[in-house]
Amino acid sequence: MTASNQSSRAAPAGGTRDGxxxxxxxxxxxxxxxxxxxxxxxxxxxxxxxxxxxxxDVLPADYSLRAWQYVFSPTSGVLxxxxxxxxxxxxxTLLSVIIGVPAGRALGQYVFxxxxxxxxxxxxxxxxxxxxxxxxxxxxxxxxGLANTLFGVMLVHLIPTLPYMVLVMSGVFANYDTSYEAQxxxxxxxxxxxxxxxxxxxxxxxIVVGGLFAxxxxxxxxxxxxLIGGGRVVTLPLLLFNFATAGRNDITGAISMLYIIPGVVIxxxxxxxxxxxxxxxxxxxxL
Amino acid sequence: MTRLNLHKLTKRYRGKTEPALDxxxxxxxxxxxTALLGPSGCGKTTTMKLIAGLLEPTLGDILFDGRSxxxxxxxxxxxxxxxxxxxxxxxxxxxxxxGFGLKMRRVDRATIDRRVAEMLELVxxxxxxxxxxxxxxxxxxxxxxxxxxxxxxxxxxxxDEPLSNLDAHLRFEMRDLIRDIQRQMGITTxxxxxDQEEAVVLADKVALIFDGRLxxxxxxxxxxxxxxxxRIAAFFGGVxxxxxRRNRKQFDCAIGTFSAPRSAIADQPGILSIRxxxxxxxxxxxxxxxxxxxxxxxxxxxxxxxxVSVSGGHEVCVVTDAExxxxxxxxxxxxxxxxxxxxxxxPPDALVEPTxxxxxxxxxxxxxTKGCR
Lengths: 287, 373
Fold this sequence. Notes:
The structure holds 2 protein chains of 2 kinds. By secondary structure, chain A is mainly α.
């Protein structure tokens, strides 16, 4: 073996050592994160299958499907609640997109008088406690027959969801060149088709990210639902809270599992939009 | 084939005191290639956007074949604009980009495919249908953008700085391509440029715009031979300007007396101008000549540029044969002849233009056109 040959081998060897350390660090971080995120869920999962589980024991004394049977029985109302929650959050997300895209466009593209005030007002619901806002709105909702209805709850969820949507979209539009639309117009596309064929594909990642935030924020609402729904509209968080305070840990665990699923599914579906797309999440830098 | 008329077109942007475009009237003949020329910020691109319908004029009218198209949405005007940065839709393939206009016109799929192939052939990019815009070079992107515009057979083709983003050899290729296709298809074309050489080489007619106002609308040669103002002459590379006055058949100015050209008005002050390439070296005592001394010379391969000091501390710039380099040295005395037919008298500055912007443009013109300095 010549010297040059040895030295040329040394370099990759050093690289491998660094590479190995990187892999270790990476896995350590991932495991920590997974533990942090998943560990609290494990007891809930076990609870959902437990029959009797007494204090000092690490695992339940008996297992059963009692809680799951209850959850899936038509009389318990859990499935109906799941359906309502999906409807409310889905609807709130859709409305957020419909309102948030034009609003974000206005904020991201145009300079106008009072723009900073508008931006502040859009952020206000995140800063001001929702309950304060909801108490004021409640009076109006009663007058217009929106209180205690699914649609009313959906509307009131816009208070916390819209800021996220608008912020994400204003970030997206700040980086979007509307000349593309102008180009499409001169080529013969009307305003709607110019938006559909040219702008929409460009801003889709932002809509997905903003919509994801909106959905999850709505999915987690408790106080607003309780106030405006008046106990008639029972979403999963309300149901969960009931069973948790009643001490039915097994049912709480089972509902929790149902409650987690949509978030995880949505996150996985939209993962490709979340990773490496700085412009889509850029607007959140303003939070 | 469409004739374009701009009638007293004015555009004021909100919050701006000066209009971006001021009372511009222009007739572009059917099937011609016209350049809107001017320094950046002079209102050229605004004019294009007004024609395309992307902006609304404050005052005035735009007519296609004598019919006003104000209030007609951009997608119905049939005026297609090709932007300076091409704006190929990044989420579509080359074929989808080129076919976009036909798809918007609800043309059937098979026809679109056939026409796309034809158009790519026309811009000499056959077989690139399935590429993505970002896989193409700048020149290729430009040609795709051109194909995308031409496929709809527009009434009017608007090109915004079509050559400015290309490197030197691509410019020539593209220039010829645009010229050829425009002739072949006979589409009335208006293009915007800040480069007077580009305008002269490509256009049938040039509209020169300064500060939102039309200065001169003429055939390219007129800007060299019969510019209307000193500022225009300077923009096109004129550097020899001498204040003077016509006195019967003579024109008296700071560096001497010459036979008065027809453009000089009797007993009126004016500026005598002659292009550097029109000045001739002559024997001492020749008619219409002035004596001087070579101040400096620069050899540029195909010709030599001289700066000649003449009486009164003035300087005349001369562009002459490359050979002169070998026979003349700085400090040598020379006689410069100003051929009578090449002399041109401009109105004095004070009568025409405000001066601040003027000086800047003069400098711009000189540096751009390889003047003597």
